[in-house]
Design goal:
With 212 residues, the protein is of the alpha+beta class. It is built from 1 helix and 11 strands; from the N terminus they run αβββββββββββ. The protein has one domain: Pili subunits. It has one helix at residues 12-65, and strands at residues 84-85, 93-97, 112-119, 122-127, 140-145, 148-156, 162-163, 173-174, 177-178, 190-197, 201-208.
């Protein structure tokens, strides 16, 4: 009759090997988890960038699609400022557009004067609560997009020629910008927008201006 053998436990070497294998698996699992978290953060950042860019392009396009031939009076100038004004200096573009919604029924116009400008690689949209400004009229500034290296506008005139400034024909100065009286209500047939981004290169958009 044989005597039953006593149960045999793990040796110290076996325990060390098991702990080492468990540690390696844990490190690999944690590395994969961290990589997954980083990928999710990158994807979330990219999607937020996409949404911001879409909102920016939509905002600019909607404003330009409703541009209207309404010059404004400015307290700092002797004559009217054109309905649409774009030069190579100062603000990128300034214009009057229709369709300013008024859900609360405030006693104001549905026309709005807006200006787009680029400061420190940030694109801003400014708007005024009144059309004809006084010395006390200050714009409300809203940052639309960052990482913008440049934004340019081109304007198609009635002869289907592209112009880099607007109004296309100029004579008498307004704030140092030559604008004849007949050109103050002049609008282009179309406007091309080019936005240059630090991360995504160039984005172009062509907007047709409504005819009067």
């Amino acid at each position: 009759m044989t005597t039953p053998r006593a149960p045999r436990g793990f040796t110290l070497l076996e325990l060390l090997i098991a702990i080492t294998i468990f540690g390696i698996v844990g490190v690999l699992a944690m590395g994969g988890y961290n990589q997954l978290i980083r990928q999710r953060e990158i994807a979330a950042t990219t999607m937020e960038r996409v949404r911001n860019l879409q909102r920016c392009v939509m905002r600019v396009s909607q404003d330009l699609e409703q541009v209207t031939a309404r010059p404004i009076r400015d307290a700092t100038s002797a004559t009217d400022m054109p309905a649409l004004l774009s030069t190579n200096e100062g603000s990128l573009i300034e214009f009057t557009h229709a369709g300013w919604t008024n859900p609360t029924g405030i006693n104001r116009s549905t026309l709005q004067r807006v200006r787009y400008r680029l400061v420190d690689n940030k694109l801003y949209r400014d708007y005024w609560s009144v059309l004809d400004r006084t010395l006390n009229s200050t714009p409300i500034e809203v940052q639309l997009l960052d990482k913008v290296t440049a934004i340019t506008f081109r304007f198609m005139d009635s002869g289907h020629q592209w112009q880099t400034t607007w109004p296309a024909t100029q004579a008498a100065p307004v704030n140092g910008i030559a604008v004849p009286s007949f050109a103050s209500r002049q609008l282009p047939m179309a406007i091309e927008i080019t936005i240059s981004l630090q991360d995504w290169g160039e984005i172009k958009r062509l907007v047709e201006v409504p005819s009067l």
